[in-house]
Design a protein that fits this description.
With 341 residues, this protein is of the alpha/beta class. It has helices spanning 29-36, 41-50, 67-85, 92-104, 107-112, 127-138, 152-165, 192-210, 213-221, 253-260, 287-295, 315-327, 331-334, and strands at 16-18, 21-25, 53-57, 60-64, 115-116, 121-122, 141-145, 171-176, 225-229, 241-245, 268-273, 301-305.
Length: 341
Amino acid sequence: MSSSSQDLRSPEKPGHQEDGVLSLTFDDNRVLALLMGQHDAHLALIEQKLGVAIVPRGNRLSIRGDQNSAELARAVLVQLYTKAARGAEINKGEIEGAIRMVKIADEKTTGESGVRTRRKTVSARTANQGAYIEMIRKNELVFGVGPAGTGKTYLAVACAAEALMNGEVDRIILSRPAVEAGERLGFLPGDMKEKVDPYLRPLYDALYDMMPQSNVAKALAENQIEIAPLAFMRGRTLASSFIILDEAQNTTPMQMKMFLTRLGEGSRMVITGDPSQVDLPYGVTSGLDDALSILNGVSGIGITHFETSDIVRHALVGRIVAAYDKKGIAISAQRKPRSIA
């Protein structure tokens, strides 16, 4: 893609109504082709999702439908055109995310929520995601709480990669408690790195999505990026760092307090977790639940609660989570937490 200023422009006109049809004129046919997709597949998806008809003629798109649906389609097309002009890949996920955004948030929030990393620009796909990104930028400590697939960890890693790229922090520290599926590290094969890597793999995957693999390898070797189990954080003070604790529902209250007090000068911290997927032994209070009740309302701390409507994985994931919630068989609902000494 050319990086000329012309390529970064939105359509010449925001849209005008003509004989019951909303029309948009675009100034770059190359970018428009990316927006439309092969055999106009992207337009077909927007038509299906919003119940409109979109007819391309040269560099002009005509949208027919009820006024509200046509306006939503116009907003989606403008948003996607702008992203395509900036070099972003337009795919099904981006289209569905844009549709969700225009339905539940204004375009100003959408435009401000992009996170630039070395490999891509990551955009919020729901209003809660946009608020989460802005909260991370404005607060030193943020909690992202909600079901799987809502982008809690992915967006936090994106913000960390952006902060490192911009020189806002000197390093990224990613951590997880090694408590999953009833397994204990001592019984797993291999050395310590081989034991803990499976627990930390989602963090590696997110990093590779934000930075070239060679850059990640170099940063890991130079300790500019550190990925370690929660137990390795004890006794440290983490300054000038972007610190993320993932799967925080699997911490105990004492572990959570230990981790939170690692925050040093010039650092930011993001805590993510899903209270419905606690793997702690029966009767042990989750450190995430404990921290949320204690720290709610404390100045400088932001909390974003994600909902099933924020799930951006396969559409079926959202329905699965909703079904579990409806039946009331989420793990957190089954347990009766008690504090431990």
